[in-house]
Write a structure and sequence with these properties.
Blueprint (H helix, E strand, L loop, with lengths): L14 H15 L1 H17 L1 H10 L1 H12 L2 H19 L2 H11 L6 H8 L2 H21 L9 H4 L4 H14 L6 H20 L6 H9 L4 H24 L3 H19 L11 H23 L20
Length: 318
């Protein structure tokens, strides 16, 4: 048999009174949590963090503007771009190959021939090119402001007139390399050896005397010419070795060689004869000697074996 349901009247509860009741009971229900929170607030206050947070909130607009300026600065953009490029580069690196190279390096080292062959590979040269370029870029960044580049690569970035002026002035101011001075002295000595030997009559002048007489010159003129040529070669050759006005000495020897070569070695007259190869070789030998002397004459600031006490200011014979 069905039981009757007790009738209950619904009375709505005031939410405000319920909230006040829960707030009054909260210290008792959450006493430990509130005590821990009070301790945390006390520590934050002692460290000054609450005051800092309050200041940041008060100056929030200024802080945001500062952050925007920093993020949008040229340094931050450059750092971000370099980071992205580095990330892309690292993504393309073959990690297995790097691991194998490091593993191989821990074993027996390769031979110098193998290292040289690897260094000449296309990838190695590409990496060296990138490394040199990066060093150049960082060097340009470290250069003080207002200082103009002096190298040929950097000076090529300047306008046309400044390029020529800066380039050639920089080359003029470059000091002689450590190997360049002794090399010039040795070169002058090698060129002067044959002239010294001719001047001391170590190499007989009988053939030259015979050829001059065959050209119709009197014997007394030939004898004087031979002695004068020997004296010129001895003095100019010694000057070349010791660096005493080497440019003037080389010009004097060139002036002597040109007529002597034409008169003593006319290979065109000995064509189709047994003397043709000998005359041609001697003619070309003298031409090569003239070329070496011309290099000496064109080189300024020649080094000397012994310093000169009286400087000579004219560049044409220094």
């Amino acid at each position: 048999m069905a039981q009757p349901v007790e009738f209950r009247k619904f009375t709505p509860q005031d939410s405000r009174e319920d909230l006040l009741r829960r707030l009054q009971d909260a210290p008792e229900d959450h006493a430990e949590a509130l005590l821990s929170l009070y301790d945390l607030l006390e520590k934050l206050h002692e460290k000054g963090l609450i005051d800092t947070a309050n200041g940041l909130l008060s100056a929030s607009t200024t802080v945001v503007n500062r952050l925007v300026d920093v993020v949008s600065s040229k340094q931050a953009v450059s750092a971000l771009r370099m980071g992205l490029m580095l990330a892309n580069l690292l993504e393309t690196i073959d990690t297995n190959r790097v691991h194998s190279l490091l593993t191989a390096a821990a074993g027996k080292p390769p031979s110098l021939l193998r290292l040289g062959r690897d260094a000449l590979s296309e990838d190695a040269r590409r990496g060296l090119s990138a490394g040199v370029g990066l060093v150049s870029v960082f060097g340009a960044a470290l250069r003080p402001k207002g200082v103009q580049p002096t190298t040929e690569v950097e000076s090529s970035k300047q306008p046309g007139p400044q390029l020529k002026k800066g380039k050639f002035n920089a080359l003029k101011k470059l000091p002689l390399l450590s190997i360049e001075k002794p090399a010039l002295i040795v070169a002058r000595t090698l060129v002067a050896v044959i002239f010294i030997m001719n001047g001391l009559n170590v190499i007989s002048q009988a053939l030259a005397t015979h050829e001059l007489i065959a050209h119709g010159l009197p014997e007394n003129i030939v004898s004087i010419s031979i002695w004068g040529a020997r004296a010129l070669q001895l003095v100019a050759g010694t000057a070349l070795i010791f660096g005493v006005f080497p440019r003037l000495a080389s010009l004097a020897l060139i002036a002597f060689l040109i007529p002597a070569t034409i008169m003593a070695h006319p290979f065109w007259q000995a064509f189709s004869t047994p003397l043709y190869p000998v005359q041609l070789i001697n003619f070309l030998k003298n031409v090569c000697m003239c070329g070496g002397l011309l290099f000496i004459a064109a080189t300024k600031d020649q080094p000397t074996l012994f310093p000169r006490s009286i400087p000579f200011s004219k560049d044409a014979v220094r």
